[in-house]
Amino acid sequence: MNKMNASGWKPGTPVSVDNEGDYPTVTGNKALMLEERLVFELGTRETCGVDLPEPDASAPNRLGKFARRKPIDLPGLSEPETVRHYTRLSRQNYAIDLGLFPLGSCTMKHNPRLNEKVARMPGFADVHPLQPVDTIKGALGVIDELSHWLIELTGMSAVAMSPKAGAHGELCGILCIRAALEARGDMRKVVLVPESAHGTNPATAAFAGYEVEDIPAAPDGRVDLDALKARLGPDVAGVMITNPNTCGLFEKDMKAISDAVHAAGGLVYCDGANFNAIMGRVRPGDLGVDAMHINLHKTFSTPHGGGGPGSGPVVLSEALAPFAPLPFVVKDADGEIRLVEEENVGDEFPGSFGRMTAFHGQMGMFTRALTYILSHGADGLRQASGDAVLNANYLLRSLDDVLDAPFGDAGHCMHEALFSDHGFAEGMSTLDVAKGLIDEGFHPMTMYFPLVVHGAMLVEPTETESKATLDQFVVAMRSLAERAKAGDETLKSAPHHAPRARLDEAHAARKPVLAWNGQDDA
Ligand SMILES: *Cc1c(COP(=O)(O)O)cnc(C)c1O
Fold this sequence. Notes:
12 strands, 33% helix, 7-stranded mixed beta sheet
């Protein structure tokens, strides 16, 4: 009996895919890239990957009414079939190790292999969160050393290491702000979020129970300082500002903003996900910031996206440090490193607002980030941020004659270059350009974000791309811009060379089919 599935395909038969081209193949495979089916379609119920002895029919049935009544509908595959299926899938994945990944606001930089080597050392890799503290002094030392660097680089007083990613760090920072306000009996209700802030900022404030109010952007893409000042008052708990902002611009009024917020009794949260542009050059503490998360998985090169967990330590000002969440690592005057947990928090740290996570944070990310920092040194980090900004400006100026750069006249950008769809022919869109980039062998940039720019294309090359790669990207982008402006219909159906062409994105997002429900034909 052959297994039939929902799509009607039978194992061993050619698949029907868009395989026209100049040289169609009978299998649907192209060169050594094989057309991949779902694992359910590849396997059959009759096949089993391992030889198990038949159960002893005379053995008592201990399952009773819980015994399975019909076979479980999982595909049977041999070990090599399984290995090949997942290896083939992995080859269809795009990654920073394959080529440019210019997602704006994401800092997709190269992850140095030295970081991986250190993170795999057994003393770090095998550490367990429930190990007795006496046996993890080295791990605590790493956390303490990394804390020291983060505090130095940001000019702040303390750092909460446990948050698991940027958005989690935002929540941690906002909860510190709330704890500080509550400690002085001041129950403020509103958090102000400029239009140029990242989408996680208003989401975080709302999640923490605050009313969120927008502050408009000025025509130069930065916070409208006067509008912000006009809204401050005794109901405002604070502001959440992304700096550099999502237009790729430095908020040059940051100090004036902080001073105004503090004068009105509020506190300042800065989204530090874009720290890669200013690391080693500007210290947020000097700009009056009270709390800021740092995405170790962006700025300090630990794998992210599908590739690894995040880590979002939050640096805190003197005003917020007493409210940091547990647990934290403390270095005493005699050099002894301690772990402060609930049972020993006592009178020493009475203000802590509680706990963000069960354990101490992302040890693997800490190890990688500290390796990155120590292998660069302060000068190297400063050079990295300078090169990141240089690369982004190189792209901005290599493309601003063919693409509209809405803030191109406002001077240099920071780590990312922003373009709009202004000037495209009727019916042509940013999406078409992004799809065309796939044909040219590049992962698309961030698109339709930030919202303040129509059809936004936000490109962040990072410092780890060579001039040769950037030049090739520029060639591709210039050609795509010309095609979009000329109304080239073939761009509307791109990508033409990817395993799948234009998908129905609205349908995929609104009605995702997440479970395979093909039925056996028996
Ligand atoms: C990535 C990012 C975040 C969220 O960080 P996660 O680690 O993905 O939770 C917040 N703000 C900005 C500006 C970002 O780029």
